[in-house]
Amino acid sequence: MALFISPARKRFDENQPLYYPLGRALTRNALKDFKGSKRKETKILFLGCYDLHNVLLTIACKTTNNGTLNIHLNHSCPYSLARNALILKVISSPNFNVNCSEDLKYLWDLWYNLEWPQTTLDRFEKDVNELIKTGLPEHNLEFDNNQLKDLKDMWRNWLSSLTKLTKSSEIEKVLKSRQEFINGGGRIGKEMLEYQAKMNKSPESPMLRQLTSKLAVAMKISDFPEVLKSKIIKEVERYYRTGSCNSRITALKSVAVNPTLLELENALSLAKTPRWRVNIYSCPFTGFLPLPLEKLEKNEENIATLYCQKMLKNLVSSYRHLKNCVNFHLHWSDNLQFCLSGTSEMFDVIDSSTLADEVGLANLIVSSSPRLDYRSPDALMITESADGWFSIASSIAGYIEEALCAPLSMIPTLYGVRPANDATLGSNVITTRGNEDGFPEITLTWRRAPRFENVPLGLSPSIELYMKNFEKKCYFMKDETTLDELKSKFFRCYTPLTYCYMVRNLVSHLENREDLQNLLLKTNFSKKGSQFTLTKRTIEARANQHPLTLVIANQPLTPEIVNLFQDNFRAPMLRVMVIPFDRWIAKKKSGSIEKSSDVYFIDNFYFKIHGKMADFVFPTLQLIFVLPEEHGLKPNHCAVIMEMYSNTVMLFLGMIDDMEQETLEVPSSTKKQPSSCSEMAPQDSFMQAGNCQESPNDFFFNISVHTKGVPKGLYVSSDELRPCEAGHRVTFSLAEPEGVQPLTLCFPHPILVDFIDATLRRPDRSIRVVLKKAIHEPWPYDFNLKPKWDVDQMKLWKESDPKKKDDLYFHVANQKGFDRLKNYLGLNIFGNAVHLPEVRLLSPIENARNIIGTILMQVQPDRCEFFEIHKVPAPGQLQSVSSTNDVPFFYIRAHLPIITSPFSSPMILLSVLDTRLSEKFIKNGLLNAKSSKEDFERIFRPRDKSNKTPMILWTNVDDSTNLLRYVFRLNSTKMKPSTWQEENLPLGKYSPYFATFVSPLYLDHFPVENSDSKKDSKKFTCTGCGKKSNATMKRCSRCKTMTYCTEKCQKADWSRHKLMCSVMEPKNLVVRVQVAE
């Protein structure tokens, strides 16, 4: 069964393999967000480990020799694993001296350069021969002995290929093949490149220029001196032309081509001659970016190479210093299959940052998250999306919800994990423009969520809806999908087995797992699609551990088939179609097939190239799939392999009856996760929770009370630890009758403990419970995060030349996606009544960004320290707060100066008083009113600043106020209070004060202005119809802000505009608060 366990759709990569042996752009320390650094042993899994850059960077960031790092490297590509094993052998050797220039040059050639001098070739042959004879070093490298033989065959293949690759004619062929591959756009496609060439009208390779430009942007050299910038760009161009880069331009004579960067002819490949298949965006510089101006040797020629070699030297030095407490375990397996069945290890950190776009985010989470160590609350998983997320959403939060087919608040239940950082708040760092659409590469960190305990999950309407949407994407049929082309490509990795694993993951921690699993698997949400009936029966039989039929088809890999794969497809997405032979003949003639109940699709199967088998002259393509034991196929059913998007038939496999078939017993699952439901001994009196119905905002369920006496005195408590206002556990207990044990329930998403609605119904002996999810409250885990930022030790924010992009104005404006403060609402006149209509239209996140930007801009130039946040007056109401008894939501004191956050963004410390929380604590007797007033006067009305009038800021709706409060509270969990705050703020469990900060909430993508819109930009825009014109338009006579092209447009828009239209006040009116003495 291990052959069919991976849920991702099979891609035939053998025909167009693509490697990243030089690393990828988003290199990062995998332990950066891991808080369990004091553990004696830390287990890290690098899933899909293309190269060792992330691994060495993670080891280099280890701050102490205490504790052991057990690092597991898995990759589905044997070529990448063979390279990694060789590099580890080299840098682990006692004879390797990283401070020796010759040793470092050898490592650089081995890792990055296409052409080698004689000295590198000699050392390579020696090292590979040692690997073949003695295997891997035993002290800290471990490999599966069953796979070591295959690995040695690959190393032998490298050596044997050198007889060709040392000939000058072969070197020229490889170099030419590499240039053709790059100029052909790798997998981008010829049509796109021809279009680019036509648009550019230049004899220069458009792809070469695109690659150079893209890398120059990533290097962040736009502010470098022109001479230096020109040098670096020429160096990059030189690498893309030659495939090599050296610290000195006068390099040694090339005598061989690096075989580890080539696809060589062997039993696992379609290559007839050595060919270049390195991803065109992969290069030596990507893992070391951006380039810091102050660390570059500006007088040298190959400036970037010298810097990168120094960084590599530092990484290897750190590894050699710590290698005695680092153990490596190498694995060669399908990445998802490895997590599902290839290992029994549980990991503290899983870095799967290269896989989300390749196998699909849902596949990655349901396969790898169960391998996170449930005993470690700090365990985390890392995913990344480089070029796929923006095809389905315009924000990171939207990407997560669309890819997982559920809102963020439902993901802990459905997937058992949660994003470690709130995706709804945007980005912590300024978003780079990324690709041509303005979307950057993103990295997400995931943590385990608690499981349900003592409460079964029911199939609520919300869960049914999300599972229905998810199933539709897994049972993919192009002619029935309503997705556009980009979205359909994003979900192409999802298969029926993805849905099966998602269901299994959902029910794995539930008391009623079998009932819910059978219900979800048997329910055909997507009523259409009879082509998947056979697949659904197979999945149900497998889930119920019924015998299956193993079907094996072997086909000779003839030259005609090889040419079909090579000429027509680039890693096609495959699907097996089982069809009656007569319908197959009709399809060949007509080119299409009518839907029928006896035609079936199979999306999960094993398909691979094997060496020559006994009965075949050619290498063999082997395809294996499973069917139910009683599949019901007729003798005339045959099987073909299709390319799922073009519906092109790639290979006829033969008649099902002619294929090898054997019965396959499904082993019973022996892996047991810790039970989430407490075992209770039989009792006469007890409470029991019924099925929990979950929605995006609530949990609601009934608790049945089994007792002879009348239940009385319901008491509800939680695991809330102040100042956190949320918890995962709720305990219900009764005063009467005696002997009824309290019932403690646990929920994946934290709930607001102040909004627990529990009603004891004596007649039917039940408790009706509604729990509100803590959507705008930090998770309990966040309040326990350590270490916290020491704000007293942070560097001051330094203003620079306003023309430069690190200016404060630039950071504030980037919350809106602007390069400058164009149309940034309310920066200097936020309190001006003319802006109140616009404030009323802001979304909650825009309102929060507006307030944060205003505070930063008022603090720096005007040194404004005091702010108040009120609800914006309704249209027609009095605009001045001074004549009302309105109490602000928040009093804010800003603490100068602005400092620099750990993300290199401007950050201002705040002391915030939550007035509603203060009133609540006073009312409940948790806070003394007199001392509270004295604290307020001391903090917000100090005598030395008595002339400081607070500035008024506005929120428009309750959601905006709650979101802003959430930002204040979330930021307070990240930092230790400053010395001033510790001395002056009455902090504690029942304090209404927050020692917090604000920093820009940047957009998580960079809006790119359409070139056509630039041409058509007009001075006036009609609010009603959207028409743009340079001709003067009439304004609303009441508010003087909205413009209309005609009276008809104004009347049509009035139903919307009247909600925010208000009488125009004098332009210089600024709302102030008068404080009574």
UniProtKB/TrEMBL annotation:
Gene Ontology annotations for the cellular component aspect, listed alphabetically: nucleus
UniProt xrefs under InterPro entries: DUF4470, TF_DEAF-1, Znf_MYND
Keywords noted in UniProt: DNA-binding, Metal-binding, Nucleus, Transcription, Transcription regulation, Zinc, Zinc-finger
GO biological process: regulation of transcription by RNA polymerase II
Database matches in Gene3D superfamilies: 6.10.140.2220
Domain (MYND-type): residue spans on this chain: 1022-1061
GO terms for MF: DNA binding; DNA-binding transcription factor activity, RNA polymerase II-specific; zinc ion binding
Record's keyword annotation contains Zinc-finger: yes
Signal peptide: none
Keyword Transcription regulation carried by entry: yes
Name of the protein this chain belongs to: MYND-type domain-containing protein
Organism from which the protein derives: Daphnia pulex (Water flea)
